[in-house]
Every structure is written in structure tokens, then in C-alpha cells.
Amino acid sequence: MSLDGKVAIVTGSGRGLGLAYAQELARQGASVVINDVDAATAAEAVASIEQAGGRAVAVVAPVGSTETAKQLVAAAVDSFGRLDILVTNAGVLRDTVLWKMSDDDFDTVIDVHLRGTFTCVREAATYLRENGVPGRIICIGSPTGQRGNFGQTNYAAAKAGIVGMVRTWALELKKAGITANAVIPVAATAMTATVPYFAAAVEAESKGEPMPAFFRHDLGFGTSDDVAGLVAFLASDAAAGVTGQAVGVGGDRLQLWSHPEPVVTAYHDGGWSYEALGAEFHAVVGEQLQSVGETFPPLPDELQRPAPARA
Fold it and tell me: Whole-model pTM above 0.90?
């Protein structure tokens, strides 16, 4: 399962989850192209890998454009001689409810998450196919893209779109021996740090203490390092037969998300007219209407924390 001799690009890897992915890939032997929009942050990420005995370079550029995608692939090939692995992690948030979301709020998130994933994968896949490399494409999704989340129209659309693209790329790249998978992480991030429900978990992590078992086991919520192992595994030769999948990971939990499948199938002679639907829809569908959003179990009393006071 060693990644010795492999070369990886990880977008949005200056800090947080992306940095954890890059560091784990390097720990397993891969040389890594770091990407961030801030030069100092990117330099610190490179230094952290080099200080641990790994090899890394940085590309400071916003993900989204074809130009950045070309820069990233060129950096891998020019610095390390090849490319084997692409992890598309770069992202931004512009959260607000639908009726307050501006065109810019929507377009910015779509451009970085969805278009940025597309342009980077297109560039990497072109290199891998032309050079006969049985590479690994790993795209970072989100529970929001799987189930929706209040105030995240743009983010949900982008993350759902990424999983749809991954399933398509798995078909298109199969003949070349290139795998494409989505990882659905559940981990402490800057976003979850502001949610009162996760306060006890964030508090433990900030103190360098283990997260309570409720979060790690019952909720499947953990640290960035808990996700990084899955990314490195999917990048390895051991995962050569895994493609087109959406795999969730967080804390002590691993999940394989299903592809969407019909849960009810019914027929009506002559087709489903307005009148037929009015008469039969509820009887046919019954209690099979699907839930939306995520529902969290009640927090144990000892993990309750007061909500922060509003300014």
C-alpha cells in the first residue's frame, strides 16, 4: 500500500482537511503539490511536509479556472516528473437562505467547488490517459450534498454535482485504469466550530484531548486526521478496484453511500394523469416519502454546552 514514487496534487491544502490529506499522502511516500490562495499558508504547509521528511511544492492560485488546473499539473510534472493522484478539496462557503442569496454568493461557491473540481480533474485525467498512468481521482463531497442543509443552496448543489460527476468519470475512465471516487468527510472544521451542538467536541480537540465517544462513535464525527487515512487508501494500489463510490468517514465510522434508487414503483394503466395522482399518490407512496437534511441524536447531558450569547 506504499505510495512511494507517487505524485499527488491536493487542492485547498494549506490548512484544515486539505492539509491533513496532503500530510498523510506524504507520510505514505507520495510527493505532494500543495495549493492555497495565500502564499504564507502554502509555504507553511510545504514546510510541515518537508520537516517530516517528505517532498512538497506549492502553487498559489485560486481553483476554478483552467489556467490554475494547468499550473497544478505542470507543477507536479516539472517538480517530480509525473502525476498519479489528484485530490480536489478546495472550497469556499457563502451560506445564506435562498431568498437572501445573491448571484455572487451562488456563483463563487459553484466556481470553486464544482467548476474547480471539473477543470482540475479534466486536466489531470488528460495527463493520466495520455501517459498511460492508472491514476486516482479523489473528490471531496459533503453530507450536505447527499441530504441537503438549511442555508446552503450553493454548497449543496456543488457537492451533489461533484458526486454526479464522479460516477460519470468512473465510467469514462475505467478503460484507462483510472479510478474516481468521492469522500464524504464528517470532521471538525471552521464551520462546525461555530455550531453549539459540536461545542464539546471542538473544545476537546482544541485542548488536545480525545473527542468524547458519543461524537466519534455514535455521530461518526472526528478530526481531519480521521478522514486522511481514507484519502490515502483510495490513492493506493489496494483500492484499484474501487471506483464510482461515495465513501463517508468520520471519527470511528466508515460508510458507503448508496447510489440513488427508487424506493417505490407503481403503475397505472394509461399513465399517471392529474386525476389519477390526486386519487392514488398518497396511497401508493404512503410513508415512503424521503427525509431531507440530517437529524442528530440528542446530546448527552454531560456534553451540553450553553449557546454563545448573541452580540
Answer: yes
What cell does 31 get?
510527493
Catalytic residue check, 224 = no
Q: Rounded to whole angstroms, how far apart are CA atoms 41 and 45? A: 6
Distance (Å, whole) CA 243 – CA 234? 9
| Helix or strand (DSSP H, E) at 139 | strand 136-140
3-state secondary structure of 31: strand
Distance (Å, whole) CA 116 – CA 179? 19
Identify which has the larger pLDDT, 304 or 267. Answer: 267
Dist CA 24 CA 8 (whole Å): 11
Examine the residue annotation and report whether 175 is marked as an active-site residue of this protein: no
d(CA 10, CA 59): 10
Query: What does DSSP assign to residue 258?
Result: P
Active-site residue flag, 197? no
Q: Which of 13, 127, 159, 236 is catalytic?
A: 159
DSSP 8-state assignment for residue 14 = S
